[in-house]
From TrEMBL, chains A, B:
Gene3D superfamilies: 3.30.420.40, Winged helix-like DNA-binding domain superfamily/Winged helix DNA-binding domain. One of its GO terms (molecular function) is kinase activity. Keywords: Kinase, Transferase. This is Sugar kinase. Belongs to the ROK (NagC/XylR) family. Transmembrane segments: none annotated. The lineage of its organism: Bacteria, Bacillati, Actinomycetota, Actinomycetes, Micromonosporales.
C-alpha cells in the first residue's frame, strides 16, 4: 500500500482500496496508523461527485528520514531520503585499495553519514533507520559481514562496530538484494513477478525476485552468479574456484580482458579499477579500437552468463546495474543482447527484456533505505508492519 | 490438506485442523466435499477420551484412478495410481532411436496407457485425469510440446493427438516440473522451501521449488540448467549453443566422456545410450578402471554445475534424479560431493544436502499424476480446488 501511495503522490483511501483490492476498512485503519506515525499527512479533499468530499493523503516529507549506505570495494556512497524515498542529500567518499580494514571502512561510513545529515540539517533523532549494503555474504539478523571475498573479510560484526558512532537502527544486507528491491519499488521490476538484477561492479552477482518478492534462498546467499562457472578450469577466482563469471566480467576481470588484448594500453591504470573502467568508457566514446575490442570480449562472456540466467530462471526482465554498468552499459548492451540471442533458448528469450538500470541516483543506496523503511514499519509492531511485503 | 491425509493414512477432522492450522469448520467443509467426490471415505471412529467419538477419514482406494505418463527420449513409462498416489499398475515400452516422430510416440503412449488400465482392470470412465510429462519446453495450457531438442520437435499439439484415443482429461508438463512436485509431495522436498531437482537423463535440467512451491518462471520454461554454459566455446549442443552442461553430463555427453577416454571401450554401444550407461554401471560395480574414470570425469563436470546451482539458488536440498542418476547415482554421488566442496561457496554449501532421489518407482510418472490430481481438484470448481497449492 505504501508503495502505491508513493507512486500516486496524493491519493484518497477509496482510491487506494480500489487499486489494491484491500477493503476500505482495512485501508482506513492502516492509513490511520501511518498518519499517527507521521509517515503520512492529510493534504486536502477531493470532490467525490455529490457525496462527502474524500480526504487525500500523501507521504509526509517531514516524517523522518531514511539513510541508504552503499559500501562498495572502491567507495562509500550515502544517501538521505524522506519517507517517499526522495533524495535529500548525497555524499560519496572514495575507498583506496589500502583502506579495506573494517575500522577504515567503518570510519568512512560514519563520516559520510554525518556529512549527509549535516548537509540536510537533520539530527540523529529524526532518522527512522539506516540500511547498509556491503559486498559479499551477510548475516542480516546478526548484522555481520560473513564473507567479503574482495577484502577477505570473515565474520566482521559490522553493525556493532557502526553502532558505536551511529545512534540509529541499522539494517545490514548486500547490494544484490538492495538493487532488486530498488528495481521492484522504483525501477524496471515494478509490476513484474520474476526479475533478475545483474550487478556489475568489482564483484558481480544477480539479485533475484520471484513472484514479485525478493528471493533470498535458504541462508540469504542466493544470487552468487558471479561464482558460477563459465569456463571449467578457467581463470583463478579469489573464491578459490576457477573460471567464475566474476573473473571475466567484474571490474578486475575486464582489466584482465584489456591486459590480454593490449598489455601496455594507456587505458590500464594498475591498482585503480575505477580509473581503468572510466578510461575504457572514454575510449569507447572516442571510437578507440582497443576499447571497442575489450567491450566485445567482455560482452562475449557477459552475454553467455546472462543467457544462463535466462535459461535457468526464465525472468521477465534482466537489469544490468551497478557502477560498471553505469560506465560501460551503453557500450555493452547491444553486444550483450546479440550474444544472448545466440546462446539463450528461444522461448525464455522471447519473454525477457534486457535493459540498463534506469533508476536516477544510486540504486543500492535506494534499496538499502527501502530495507530500513520496511524494517521500521515492521519493528513498530503495529498493523502497519503488514503494509509491506517483508523482504 | 490432501497431502496431509495421504501422509497420515487415516485421520480425524480435528487432527487435520490441528496439524494444518485450518479451522475445524473449514476442514469439515473440505472433507465433506471430498467425501462427496468419492476421493475420501469414512473409515470408522476414534475414541476422543470422554467426548463424542471422532470420525476418521482416509483416501478412498476405489475413488477413481490417476494416470502418470513419463515420455522420455528412450522409453514411455506409464503408472496408474489410486487417489493416495499408490501405484496400481506400471507399464514401460522402449522407444527406439528411429521412433521419435510424434505419431510413433503417441502410439506408444496410447498402448502403454491401455495396457496399464487393462492390467488393473480399470475402464476409461474411472480415470480422473492423466498427467503427461514430455522432455523439453511445453505450453501446458495449449497442451503443446513447443520444443523437444533431442527430437527436434517444434510445436507438436500433443494433447490433441492423444485425445483422439484417450478419453480422459490430459495435462501436459515436463519432467523437471513433475520431478519437483514428486519430491515436494513424497520425497526429499517434503517440508522444505527451496528445492532443486537435478534431472539426469538424455537431456538434463533442474526442477526448481521456492517457498515450498514449484517455480515455473515467466513462460513455464525455468530450470533449463542443461543449457547453461559450463565451458565457453566447448562441445556443440543441439540447442545451437556451445559448452552446455547437458553436453557433458547428459547420457550422450557421458558417452562422449567415455569415447574421449577409451574410443574402443566395450562399454560403448553406439546409438544405444541406455545400454551404454547400464554397461558403465556394471563396469563400476565390477571395479573396471575405465568405468571409474568416466564417473570421475562426469562428476568433475556435474559437480561444478551443481555448485553453480548451490551458489545461485542457495537451496536446502539438491536431489539427483531420473534414469541416469538411477543407474550411476551411487557411483557419482561421493565424487560429485567432493567436487561441489571445492567449487561452492562455504555458506550456501553448508546449508545444502545433496542426495539421490529416494522415491520408489518412477518420480516423473508420480509427479505427472500429482499434476492430474491437482488439476482435477481445481477443475471441479468447488472449494476443494483450494485444497492444493496450484503448481
Amino acid at each position: 500500500m505504501l508503495r502505491h501511495i508513493i507512486a500516486s503522490a496524493t491519493v484518497s483511501r477509496q482510491q487506494i482500496a480500489s487499486d489494491t483490492g484491500l477493503s476500505l476498512a482495512t485501508v482506513s485503519n492502516l492509513v490511520g496508523e501511518l498518519l499517527e506515525l507521521g509517515l503520512l499527512v492529510e493534504v486536502g479533499y477531493q470532490d467525490s461527485g455529490g457525496g462527502r468530499p474524500r480526504g487525500l493523503v500523501a507521504i509526509n516529507p517531514n516524517g523522518g528520514v531514511l539513510v541508504g549506505i552503499d559500501v562498495a570495494e572502491t567507495y562509500v556512497h550515502v544517501e538521505l531520503f524522506d519517507p517517499a524515498l526522495t533524495v535529500l542529500a548525497s555524499v560519496e567518499e572514495e575507498l583506496h585499495p589500502e583502506e579495506n580494514r573494517p575500522d577504515q571502512v567503518v570510519a568512512h561510513v560514519v563520516s559520510s553519514v554525518e556529512s549527509a545529515l549535516a548537509t540536510a540539517g537533520v539530527g540523529h533523532d529524526r532518522v527512522l533507520g539506516a540500511g547498509i549494503s556491503v559486498p559479499g555474504q551477510v548475516d542480516r539478523e546478526g548484522g555481520v559481514s560473513v564473507f567479503a571475498p574482495n577484502w577477505d573479510w570473515h565474520d566482521v560484526p559490522l553493525r556493532s562496530l557502526l553502532a558505536r558512532s551511529l545512534d540509529m537502527p541499522l539494517y545490514l544486507d548486500n547490494p544484490l538484494r538492495a538493487c532488486v528491491v530498488a528495481e521492484l519499488w522504483f525501477g524496471a521490476g515494478r509490476g513484474r513477478d520474476d526479475v533478475v538484477v545483474v550487478n556489475l561492479g568489482t564483484g558481480v552477482g544477480a539479485g533475484l525476485a520471484f513472484g514479485g518478492a525478493l528471493y533470498r534462498g535458504a541462508t540469504n546467499s542466493a544470487g552468487e552468479w558471479g561464482h558460477t562457472t563459465l569456463v571449467v578450469d578457467g581463470r583463478l577466482c579469489h573464491c578459490g574456484s576457477r573460471g567464475c563469471v566474476e573473473t571475466y566480467v567484474g571490474a578486475p576481470g575486464i582489466m584482465q580482458n584489456l591486459r590480454d588484448l593490449a598489455p601496455n594500453s594507456p587505458f590500464l591504470h594498475t591498482d585503480d579499477q575505477t580509473a581503468t573502467i572510466e578510461a575504457l568508457a572514454r575510449g569507447v566514446a572516442d571510437g578507440d579500437p582497443v576499447a571497442a575490442k575489450v567491450v566485445t570480449e567482455t560482452a562475449r562472456y557477459l552475454g553467455v552468463a546472462v543467457a544462463d540466467l535466462i535459461n535457468l530462471v526464465n525472468p521477465e526482465v534482466v537489469v544490468l546495474s551497478s557502477w560498471v554498468a553505469g560506465l560501460l552499459g551503453d557500450a555493452l548492451l547491444a553486444e550483450v543482447r546479440a550474444v544472448v540471442g545466440r546462446h539463450a533458448l528461444r522461448r525464455p528469450l522471447a519473454a525477457t527484456e534486457i535493459t540498463l538500470c534506469r533508476i536516477a541516483g544510486n540504486p543500492v543506496s535506494l534499496g538499502a533505505a527501502t530495507f530500513a523503511l520496511e524494517r521500521f514499519l515492521s519493528a513498530i509492531g503495529t498493523n502497519a508492519g503488514g503494509l509491506v511485503r517483508q523482504t
